[in-house]
Design goal:
four-stranded antiparallel sheet; 21% helix; 160 residues; Rieske Iron-sulfur Protein; single chain; six-stranded antiparallel sheet
Length: 160
């Protein structure tokens, strides 16, 4: 009777034992490489390359009492009698994008609720939605700067 090594070197068919040994080692090697790749990916920071200063249109596009969710930028633009305000549309719980509802904003993932000023009043969100700096460009466009957090009661009036 030939051993697995002899049948391999003689050019004959592979034995079942030799084939299963190769398959097991291939599985171990594959899972080890996948684990190593995920470990290396985990060590590198995930960076987003979205601009932190961007235009959200002209002030005339927002009538008094309007609320607009700009999904691509994950920002909320609100206008009332006092002026304009820009807030983050990212829930402070786990980062889902909030949706507009009649009484304010709601997180569809875990049920956090925010009033019209962005203050959390229900659900697991630990803090209110941050407000961003809003200013007017030389061309008259509304510009949002997400690098600068402003007080919640700060409004911007481009017509003043």
């Amino acid at each position: 009777m030939r051993t697995a090594h002899e049948s391999r070197s003689a050019g004959g068919p592979l034995s079942r034992r030799y084939f299963l040994s190769l398959a097991a080692w291939a599985g171990v090697l594959t899972s080890g490489l996948a684990g190593l790749a995920q470990s290396l990916r985990f060590l590198q920071p995930t960076l987003t390359h979205t601009p932190s200063v961007f235009s959200v249109g002209s002030p005339g596009e927002y009538p008094i009492g309007s609320r607009r969710l700009i999904q691509t930028r994950r920002v909320l633009i609100l206008r009332d009698a006092q002026g304009f305000r820009a807030m983050s549309a990212v829930c402070t719980h786990l980062g889902c994008t909030v949706t507009l509802v009649e009484w304010g904003f709601s997180c569809p993932c875990h049920g956090s609720k925010f009033d019209l000023t962005g203050v959390n009043f229900a659900g697991p969100a630990p803090r209110p939605l941050p407000a961003f700096r809003l200013y007017s460009s030389p061309e008259g466009e509304l510009m949002v700067d997400t690098r600068q957090i402003v007080p919640r009661d700060q409004f911007f009036d481009p017509f003043a």
